[in-house]
Input
Amino acid sequence: DAKNKTKMVTSRLLLWLVTVFLFLLHSSVTMSNQTLCPSLYERSIDVSNRIISFSQRRKIIFEIYSLVKDNYVHKIDLNFFWGKIDSIANKFDNEYEFYKNLNSFLHIIDDEHSRFIPKELADLLLNKNTGFLQRGNRYSIQRNSFFINKTINKNLKVGDEIVEVNSCMPQKLRDLNFTEKEKIKLKIKRDDSILEKNLENSDKEIISTEKYFGDILYLSFIKFSKENVDFFENTIDSNRNLDYKKLVIDLRGNGGGDVLSLKRMLGFFLAGFQGFNKDKNGKILEKFEIKGDLSFHKLLTQKKVYILVDNSTASASEIFAAILKYRKIGIIIGENTAKNTEAARSFKISDGSVLFLSFMEFYLPNEIKLSDTGVEPDYTVPTVWQENIEADNLIDFLTQIK
Output
């Protein structure tokens, strides 16, 4: 009997291993057959035969190296860095290929704030009349796949998985920005169905959402801006007499925003606060100080505050969640945040290109550096909890939290 049981276990184990191997083989073949979409740079710049001189290439890479060495907040191997950009300068004299490879390499060592933008793309990005739009969508990455986490498009839904964009796979979140001239066809997976949808032009921006569920006030916005903070202030102020006990702030997919709006938002919750922004040597470059709005502070401290986050919650929204957690004002629900709390500056290269570099990063008063840790949730919720917020799922979920 013992021998038979051993044989049975062994055969089942072998069958399981073969099944796993075949699945991985199928996945690798499928992935290898998928074409990667051209990057934002490749889609924006015409391929040309223009030659860029060796002396000009050397000048550009030396400027980049000097800026990274003097300003970049994270530690990197400068010898390796120089070797890579020097090899690019030596190998490519075609202007398009030189910038394309320089752009691709700098993506490897960057954070989400630091990036190199070649001249022609910089001109497009800085021109408000030809800017790039997400066409009424916000996206997130889950399990190495792209999902829609907010949309105002009627033919798309939150939770739709993007299978293809114009018959190819996007490489980065920033590649899901499009010019008005581009015709975009999405292939999406919804439940067990594969659907094709045209992505129409839209100059509308997803601003904010406000919903009431019994004793819950739910607010969602995708970035910290004057308009969104005005929305928050007006909503709270106009409902001072409303009998809600729980305030839910949804920051899933919120990529950050401007610092002044962040400080103003924090002022509604805090009587005062001081954090720090430090350079790569740990030197304090500026104090991050909050002066509270006492009338709102008194009101909001009477509420139970919940903050929803995911791995796309970044920058200013991470700092907001971290400070409320540090002060024990908010309960954090969701996933660990993106660890992108650096502040970036733009540096103009002599050829007209632009180098964005993270030059300082945020520290809490207890010396915790958020770019190392992100914000760890008090209650971890898998990324599959990504559907539109409605009364039933929100109320049911919050009842599980003390």
Summary: The chain is about 35% helix and 25% strand. Confidence is low (pLDDT under 50) at residues 26-32.
